[in-house]
């Protein structure tokens, strides 16, 4: 049973998990774990199932999925009869009205739908997966130089359930670097699996890039694949200006995760999300909603420039010129 916090109702709710009994069996029983390691975590299994979900035959799954998980189709751009495959339905686009974007430059929005956990003042060598399990950012990226920029910053984990909207978006205007792709396994990213597989994020297939945000510094974004997610589609063009809320990419079938790392003193996360995270509880969020605000210290830091004898704020420099 997975509980999460609904910030709109201010109550805890129980998540309806797709294939919950299968997940419990796969990650808890000796036979299930053997089957998992022999087949389910392998690329071949996800590739075959992913291919099926791209075929016309897979359309038969759509109606039952909508019914079983009470999917709101009124906000989908396509009707149920227009989808060409289950993956076409799974990665469906929503109407603009369904996910309004707060345009204010100091407001941090959610990159997607899901359940979020946030960790402050992070230690790069001991990032929290779940209680008792940690991993290192350098291992996740396979790039120590990039990882070192985020020590003492904020780590935000957005877990997308199979029932969620599966496109992810930019949290601000700016430009994004090219995507770095890392091969790996295809474990589930459900909390059931996270409690059983140490360093799961570092074992799974993943892709990462650095988003040069106009208002929140350089944001490191990692997309993690999972069981049946044979494909992560990046729909942006690297080093090209993007707008706040613009689509970055999407996942095909399966639960997935987006992890964002923020540099120190750049943002302040909303108090209700922080409170729940400290309790070990995920908070339900949707793409485009406010989840944080720009840290005032970042406004001061960005005015500072290197000078010959150290860091001198441009504000002070201007004052000296007047004298």
What does this structure look like?
- With 323 residues, this protein is an alpha+beta fold.
- Helices cover 26% and strands 28% of the residues.
- The strands form five sheets. Strands 1, 2, 4, 7, 9, 10, 11, 12, 15 and 17 form a ten-stranded mixed β-sheet that branches. The chain has a three-stranded antiparallel β-sheet with strand order 3-18-16. A three-stranded antiparallel β-sheet has the order 8-14-13, with no helix packed on it.
- Strand 5 and strand 6 (133-135) form a beta hairpin.
Summarize, please:
Helix content is 26%, strand content 28%. With 323 residues, it is of the alpha+beta class. The strands form five sheets. Strands 1, 2, 4, 7, 9, 10, 11, 12, 15 and 17 form a ten-stranded mixed β-sheet that branches. It has a three-stranded antiparallel β-sheet with strand order 3-18-16. Strands 8-14-13 form a three-stranded antiparallel β-sheet, with no helix packed on it.
């Amino acid at each position: 049973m997975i509980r999460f916090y609904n910030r709109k109702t201010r109550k805890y709710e129980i998540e309806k998990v797709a294939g919950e009994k299968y997940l419990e069996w796969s990650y808890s029983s000796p036979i299930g774990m053997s089957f998992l390691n022999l087949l389910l975590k392998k690329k071949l299994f996800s590739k075959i199932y992913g291919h099926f979900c791209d075929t016309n035959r897979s359309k038969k799954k759509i109606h039952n999925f909508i019914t079983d998980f009470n999917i709101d189709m009124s906000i989908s751009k396509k009707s149920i009869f227009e989808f060409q495959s289950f993956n076409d339905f799974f990665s469906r686009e929503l109407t603009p009205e369904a996910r309004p974007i707060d345009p204010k430059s100091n407001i941090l929005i959610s990159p997607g739908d899901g359940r979020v956990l946030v960790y402050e003042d992070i230690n790069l060598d001991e990032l929290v997966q779940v209680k008792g399990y940690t991993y290192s950012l350098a291992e996740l990226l396979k790039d120590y130089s990039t990882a070192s920029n985020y020590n003492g910053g904020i780590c935000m984990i957005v877990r997308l359930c199979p029932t969620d909207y599966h496109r992810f978006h930019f949290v601000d205007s700016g430009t994004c670097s090219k995507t770095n792709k890392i091969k790996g396994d295809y474990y589930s990213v459900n909390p059931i699996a996270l409690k059983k597989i140490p360093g799961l994020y570092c074992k799974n297939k993943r892709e990462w890039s650095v988003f040069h945000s106009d208002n929140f510094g350089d944001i490191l974004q990692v997309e993690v694949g999972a069981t049946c997610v044979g494909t992560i589609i990046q729909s942006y063009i690297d080093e090209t200006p993007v707008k706040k809320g613009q689509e970055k990419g999407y996942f095909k079938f399966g639960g997935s995760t987006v992890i964002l790392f923020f540099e120190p003193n750049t943002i302040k996360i909303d108090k209700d999300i922080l409170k729940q995270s400290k309790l070990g509880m995920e908070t339900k969020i949707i793409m485009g909603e406010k989840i944080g605000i720009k840290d005032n210290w970042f406004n001061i830091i960005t005015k500072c420039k290197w000078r010959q004898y150290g860091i001198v704020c441009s504000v002070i420099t201007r004052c000296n010129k007047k004298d």
